[in-house]
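hey m, so remember when u said the tokens were messed up on ur end? i reran from scratch. heres the input so u can diff it against urs
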Amino acid sequence: MNIDKRKATTVLSRWRFFTGVSRKAGLIAVVFISIAGCSKDNVTGPPQVVIPLQTTVQAAVNLQSTTGFVILAGSLISNIPTSAITGDIGLSPAARSFITGFGLTEVTGTIYAADDVSPAGVPAMLTAAKGDLTMAYNDAAGRTSTDMVLLAGNLGGLTLTPGLYKSSGSLEISSGDLTFDAKGDANAVFVLQMASTLITTSGRRIILSGGAKASNIFWQVGTSATLGTTSVFKGNIMANQSISLNTGAAVEGRLFARIGAVTLSSSTVVKPAP
């Protein structure tokens, strides 16, 4: 992917940062200070990060035949009861024996696996769906624009407006909630690309405002995603590897793991409204 670095907007480019090492914790702490709003003699509190508005309109990622699924995985779908899943579940190329832990009333929808012989055509249907997932993943991962916004680290406390966002590493929601603001456009699309992991910590929420819809938020995750205990998540996760939901996590969206597993624990997953 070729990105014009002169035109791409980096949220962090407007901030001066200090890195310090905590010997006790063995961690690196990064503090961002607004160049425009603070001086070394006048630091009144944490700066407000303003996400620039993008003029390039993003089209929705075409999920094709995967739209009927709320969970689609490659190697395993496991559950620690009791969860509530609304929408179809699919596993391919792994067999039905790798779908575990679901009670009779936990899934409102149909569970499909690659070795199903009835109804006829299930293996071919799942193969097509996994192929469509790969195309959707590659579409999201390959997008670029002249006014895309580059992100890094923690998204907590931010408000994202419609457009394309990219991280060369991991993203997390860990020190505040994340808001998507469609600015009154119910068709507004948000695409977030990350080269590595997506993590939300316990209790963190994604908030929709201005007409934003979970169905129009697409998370392209380069490796795996982990949603923290009782966190509330919105949007379609397309992870190259796996997706894990800790106890009580709730999702309005879809969980698609191209190669690996989707694991649930007393979780709620609801297919988003169009």
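this time it looks ok to me. The first strand starts at residue 9 and ends at 10. if urs says something different then somethings off w ur setup not the seq
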